[in-house]
Amino acid sequence: MRNVTLSIAMLACASTAFAQNFPVTLKSTEVIPGMFMLEGEGGFAGGNMTLLVGDDRIFLIDDGIEAIGPKLIETAAELAGRPVDFVINTHVHGDHVGSNAALASDGAVVVAHDNIRKRLLEDSAEAGGPGGLPVVTFADAVTFFVNGHEAFVFHVAAAHTDGDAVIHFRDVNIIHAGDVHFNYLFPFIDLDTGGSIAGFLTAQRRMLALADDETVIIPGHGPLASKADLQAAVDMLADSQARVATLVDQGMSEEDIVAANPLALYHDDWNWDFITTERMTRTLIRSMAAEQAE
After folding, report:
1. 129-183, pLDDT tens digit by residue?
2. Percentage of the chain surpassing pLDDT 90?
3. Residue 44 falls within a domain, yes or no?
4. Are 167 and 150 a contacting pair, CB within 8 Å?
5. Which residue range is the domain that position 136 belongs to?
6. CB neighbour class for 12 (10 Å; exposed up to 12, middle 13-18, buried from 19)
7. Per the domain annotation, does 45 fall within a domain?
8. Alpha-carbon distance 174 to 164, whole Å?
9. What order do you get walking across the sheet with 86-88 strand by strand?
10. Cα pseudo-dihedral 122, 137, 97, 70, rounded to 10
11. What is the overall mean pLDDT for the chain?
12. Is the residue at 155 inside a domain?
């Protein structure tokens, strides 16, 4: 993940022509029998995906960038033996909804929070075009009973974006966090799409309250995680917020705070090419300013 050379935004806009010769493959990791985490291998395919297969319905959480669509459909068919029935979008970004249109044309029903559909109605390119619009939406929560599992899909407000959903497989103690958890990576908190530091921390703490030492957490980006990993992310972000707030309260300018490098102690373990230590610092400053202005 730390060696990604193209930004998420660039890859999310990959063209259909590029998709036909896209060199990235999909790696599947069986989390429990019939449930697989899918991730790009040999390059960036988008955020982590979860595929649940069985005799009942084929259930997919997120679907990567548009370019991975054909390979995702192929991989799902290989693992499930038939096409995907339901796709759940955890948020609106193109590295998580990019193959919506391709999967919908293959027969899948796309489900998402109300705000995701609202945003995609304004610009459907992130989802592969108008065919990628969610056709079923929810405001607070919805539960799927599939293949003997109970998948509780719930909205977390103003977190990574304004349309985030977390999926809790209650019966098997697995949480798909979407981009409400970046595992040992500074998180991308999209302030321009309704995200906030406060909401992000609230969402993470809600997941912590659902978890125990045996919980498996599928993050939006990074390897499989545990409750301890999620707690480390919460502790890092809360401490980073406090460190930046101290300098803001001293009246320092944004540039002076960046120069002071208050997140230096986290750089080696959390910095990556998309959300660098500097960008995380600026996000914290901007989020605090927005909250104070309310």
Report:
1. 999 999 999 999 999 999 999 999 999 999 999 999 999 999 999 999 999 999 9
2. 90
3. yes
4. no
5. 8-227
6. buried
7. yes
8. 17
9. 25-32, 35-41, 49-52, 59-61, 86-88, 109-113, 136-138
10. -120
11. 93
12. yes
Q: Answer yes or no: are the C-beta atoms of 45 and 68 closer than 8 Å.
A: yes
Select from 35, 227, 269 the least CA-distant residue to 48: 35
How far, in Å, are 5, 257, 263 from residue 283 at the CA level?
A: 21, 12, 12
Helix axis angle, 277-293 to 197-210, nearest 10°: 100
Q: Are the beta carbons of 179 and 188 closer than 8 angstroms?
A: yes
Structure tokens at 160: 């990574």
Instruction: Read off the pTM.
Output: 0.93
61: domain CATH number is 3.60.15.10
Q: Please state at what angle helix 277-293 crosses helix 227-249, rounded to 10 degrees.
A: 70
Checking if the pLDDT of 4 tops 70, the result is no
pLDDT digits (tens, 9 = 90+) for 224-266: 999 999 999 999 999 999 999 999 999 999 999 999 999 999 9
**Counted domains in the chain:** 1
Q: How many other CB atoms are found less than 10 A from the CB of residue 172?
A: 17
Per-residue model confidence as pLDDT tens digits over 5-37: 334 444 444 444 345 568 999 999 999 999 999
- Looking at the domain assignment, is residue 65 inside a domain? yes
- The encoded tokens of residue 241 equal 């917020």
Distance CA 78, CA 121 (A): 32
Read off the tokens for 108. Answer: 């899948």
Give the pLDDT mean for 107-124.
98
Structure tokens at 191: 């302030």
Strands annotated E in 173-268 = 174-182, 216-221
